[in-house]
Amino acid sequence: MTCAIISDIHANLEALQAVLQDIENYKVDKIHCLGDIIGYGCNPIECLNLITRHCDIKLMGNHEYIVLGLLNLEHLNDIARASIELTQKQLSDRELSILADLDMDAEIENACLVHASPYEPEEWHYILTIPEAKRAFESFDQSLCFVGHSHLPRIFSHYPNRECSSRVGHDLDLDTECRYLVNVGSVGQPRDNDARACYVIYDTTEQQIQYHRVEYDVKLTQTKMMEANVPLMLVERLEIGR
Ligand code: ZN
């Protein structure tokens, strides 16, 4: 079976449409979404509708969690707070109830799926360093864990009795001896200096991971964001992917 795993769409409709179109080329069996469908961008409802229609597993991200009022806005910076408030204004009870139904984590074959970290998923920890990855490996039983959240495509590998290692997201034939933590990158707000949308295809039969990068109409997204009064920093970072 093959599945596409997407994350961190952030209400970027053009990026999501381009990714869904690209996925069609690979005839995957399923599409799973690791959360942060909304926040930052200006098309939360359209993105939510597309995710609802196309995705099998749909997980909660920290942006959904905040919009639902489950996390205090106090510790957010001004830009994040402004974007959350813009999103909250657009969503009706119908969309909020879809968000409230999202799962915190899920399991497929030999892999667990979660937005941020397999430990304390509702604390929204980032997994960026080897110690953080080590803690993550101790917190799931499967061979693989797919995450999003940092918007940085990266694979952490952990062989038994060896130190963890990490590399930028790359195509990989999985070794049955090894366990992996795979960050699938971001569809709508990439931050690895590559403006193209990012997602992963996981072939559970061949045990292969493939990263895909997809160009989309960044200028159109930026124009719409400016018209919607999205903070300029969020608009500008799209074209440099940072
Ligand atoms: Zn995100």
Helix and strand topology:
Layout (H helix, E strand, L loop, with lengths): L1 E5 L6 H12 L5 E4 L10 H11 L7 H6 L10 H13 L2 H8 L4 E4 L2 E4 L15 H8 L6 E4 L6 E5 L6 E4 L3 E2 L5 E5 L13 E7 L4 E7 L3 H10 L4 H9 L2
Parallel strand pairs: 1-2, 4-5, 5-9
Antiparallel strand pairs: 1-10, 3-4, 6-7, 6-9, 8-11, 10-11
Helix pairs in contact: 1-2, 7-8
This protein binds zinc ion.
Key attributes of the depicted protein:
single chain; 242 residues; alpha/beta; Purple Acid Phosphatase, chain A, domain 2; 6-stranded mixed β-sheet; 5-stranded mixed β-sheet; 32% helix; binds zinc ion
Mean pLDDT: 95
CATH architecture: 4-Layer Sandwich
Please identify which CATH superfamily we are dealing with: Metallo-dependent phosphatases
H/E element string? EHEHHHHEEHEEEEEEEHH
Rounded to the nearest angstrom, the distance between the terminal CA atoms is 33 Å
**Main CATH class:** Alpha Beta
Stretches with pLDDT under 50, minimum 5 residues: none
| Oligomerization | single chain
Beta percentage is 15-25%
Derived from helix and strand composition plus strand pairing, the structural class reads alpha/beta
Shape: globular
Rg, please? 17 Å
Helix run count:
8
